[in-house]
Specification:
Layout (H helix, E strand, L loop, with lengths): L1 E7 L5 H14 L6 E7 L5 E4 L43 E4 L10 E4 L10 H8 L9 H7 L2 H12 L5 E5 H6 L2 H12 L3 E4 L9 E4 L4 H11 L2 E4 L1 H5 L3 H12 L9 E3 L2 E3 L2 H14 L4 E5 L5 E6 L4 E9 L5 E3 L3 E5 L6 H5 L4 E4 L6 H17 L5 E8 L5 E7 L9 H7 L5 H18 L4 H20 L4 E7 L2 H17 L3 E9 L2 E4 L10 H8 L5 H9 L1 H8 L7 E3 L10 E4 L6
Parallel strand pairs: 1-2, 1-5, 20-21, 20-24
Antiparallel strand pairs: 2-3, 3-4, 6-13, 7-8, 7-13, 9-12, 10-11, 10-12, 14-15, 14-16, 14-18, 16-17, 18-19, 21-22, 22-23
Length: 581
């Protein structure tokens, strides 16, 4: 089956989407599927990408091409609007149109995030052209992108009471902001959580922690995707600092992105912005407001919740019933779990399950499953929330296309039920076809596609593959390399990788799949000596039929050996930090 891996798109999360596209491209089961990378550019064009570009670090490393990146700035293609009417270079790939999608792939694996990608837009396009796609359908996607609607529907589903307010853009521009701040404090108290309601990946999230009007203004401007520039602030910078500031506006992990609007003038490029501000502040001392062309029209404000923060995935059995994965506790090293803290190493630590009682973890799972069903979501979702000191579960932000890097929470949680990344992706594809059948569109074709895939999965399970040992020592570097090898061999499907941790000359641990998904080797070493948590045991038992279909027989225990010779039947080894033997 040919799998079109869709990544990129016009949203601010396109680089995270690129990382997810790489994961699907590299970890797709090569015995079952043929990957076809489909890059969606900021103009909404679909490009069947030359696979070599999948190994670049950033979209800007290949698109627009380095030749088209001018004036010393690194920009995305929307900063070069004339390129919308220029043919895509054959060096990059082939431009394809939706009416010809079926000539290139049989299924669309969506690794795109944010507006147009998770809100039902791309899903509706694919349904129109009868291309099955991964993840929830139209209704679940539409609900999953709107944080205001989510809060209201979650409250209807589980009865939770979380105070919130909505501030419209016209209110923010016209109302007395100091008076608004007083109204917000009276209703929500301080701290205040501020969110852009139609973004994903924790983009547009701020917390007003102090009773500070200035902090409040900065937070709301951030979530409206606008910023204020004072004349004295601009004039205090030298030319190099001004150019660096203009570049940061173009960087999606720290700026509002281009194009920007200033005084109703559209500016597409950092150089244009640099020139405009130099000229404007040469004759005026007024403060100017920069706004993204994709700015939010309203901002969501919520009361701050104290408690243990968690994120919990939910998937489905074949019959459509829910299977809630073990919740992951997010232990923050930084104050705000925003875009940067979510994706930058070391900003958080994760623990599965939440450090609490079995009953509380079960309560989290119950609420997650209930909201998943009531909000019309299917296939998969990741829902975040808090467990308060009083034991109350408060949920928010259903994410219908969870991040798909190999270290993403959804893969960590699916590993706890015995699935590696390759098997998890196969689940996403297979269950998505099953759910598209339930929509009643192109039913018989999809049933045939599903049957062919089921036959191939069953045949693959019957194949005996030689074991390949991956021997590594207890360092973060070797553990990271071991995880890479583990993923690579699983995707190739030619052998069964067996990870072996060496902690002494006479102590070797054969690790189960779930222990190959921790962030640091110290987390791994702690779990080697611990009993498996009762919630993990219980959830694995509930998942047993699903796990058996995708992974066969899975062992969750650790085996201890006193020498390599006693580990059978491994004959082929890769020894990390040494030559291959």
């Amino acid at each position: 089956m040919r799998i079109g891996i869709f990544f990129g798109g016009p949203s601010r999360e396109r680089e995270i989407s690129f990382a997810g596209g790489k994961t699907a491209f590299e970890h797709l089961d090569k015995q079952l599927f043929e990957p076809v990378p489909v890059f969606v550019d900021s103009f909404g064009r679909f490009i069947k990408l030359d696979p070599r570009w999948m190994y670049e670090a950033s979209i800007r490393d290949f698109f627009p091409s380095p030749v088209q990146q001018t004036d010393g700035y690194r920009v995305y293609i929307e900063s070069l609007p004339h390129l919308a009417h220029v043919a895509v270079s054959p060096e990059i790939g082939e431009l394809i149109t939706p009416d010809r999608f079926s000539d290139h792939f049989d299924f669309a694996m969506l690794a795109m995030h944010g507006p147009d990608c998770e809100d039902g837009a791309i899903q509706g396009l694919l349904e129109w052209y009868r291309i099955p796609y991964s993840g929830p359908g139209l209704m679940g996607s539409a609900v999953g992108i709107d944080k205001v609607l989510q809060n209201e529907m979650i409250a209807l589903a589980n009865g939770q009471d979380k105070r919130m307010m909505v501030v419209r853009y016209d209110q923010w521009q016209q109302q007395d902001r100091q008076q608004l701040f007083e109204e917000v404090k009276q209703k929500l108290g301080v701290p205040i959580v501020v969110k852009a309601p139609h973004q994903g990946s924790s983009i547009g999230v701020a917390i007003v922690r102090q009773d500070s009007y200035d902090e409040f203004v900065i937070a709301l401007n951030q979530c409206f995707f606008q910023m204020e520039v004072a004349a004295d602030q601009w004039q205090a910078m030298d030319q190099e600092a001004k150019q660096a500031w203009a570049q940061r506006i173009a960087n999606l992990d720290e700026g509002i992105g281009f194009p920007v609007v200033v005084n109703d003038i559209f500016l597409y490029h950092p150089k244009e912005l640099f020139t405009y501000l130099n000229q404007a502040f040469a004759t005026s001392s007024n403060t100017l407001t920069l706004s993204s062309t994709n700015a939010e029209d309203q901002v969501l404000l919520e009361t701050y919740v104290s408690g243990q923060e968690f994120s919990c995935g939910c998937i489905q059995h074949d019959d459509g019933s829910t299977l809630v994965l073990p919740p992951t506790e997010i232990i923050k090293v930084v104050e705000v779990f925003d875009f940067n803290s979510k994706y930058k190493p070391g900003a958080t630590r994760k623990r599965i399950p939440v450090t609490t009682t079995l009953a509380n973890n079960q309560k989290i799972q119950y609420n997650i499953g209930l909201v998943f069903q009531r909000l019309g979501i299917n296939v998969c979702a990741r829902i975040d929330g808090f467990l308060t000191p009083e034991g109350e579960v408060l949920l928010h932000d259903p994410n219908t296309i969870p991040g798909m890097s190999p270290t993403s929470l959804i893969f960590k949680q699916m590993a706890e039920i015995g699935l590696n990344v390759t098997q998890a992706i196969t689940y996403f594809i297979r269950q998505s076809i099953r759910e598209r059948i339930r929509s009643g569109k192109d039913t018989w074709h999809l049933r045939q596609l599903l049957q062919k895939l089921d036959d191939k999965i069953s045949s693959q399970q019957a194949v005996s593959r030689p074991a390949k040992g991956i021997l590594f020592e207890a360092t973060d570097e070797q553990y990271a390399r071991a995880r890479q090898c583990f993923g690579k061999y699983n995707a190739e499907g030619k052998c069964t990788p067996v990870p072996i941790l060496k902690v002494a000359d006479t102590t070797y641990y054969q690790l189960p799949v779930q222990l190959m998904f921790k962030d640091y080797v110290e987390d791994l070493l702690a779990l080697v000596s611990e009993e498996r948590d009762p919630l993990l045991v219980e959830t694995s038992e509930q998942a047993a039929p699903l796990t058996a279909f995708y992974a066969g027989m899975v062992e969750y225990g650790i085996k201890t050996y006193s020498s390599l010779d006693s580990i059978t039947p491994i004959e082929d080894w890769i020894v990390l930090g040494s030559e291959k033997i």
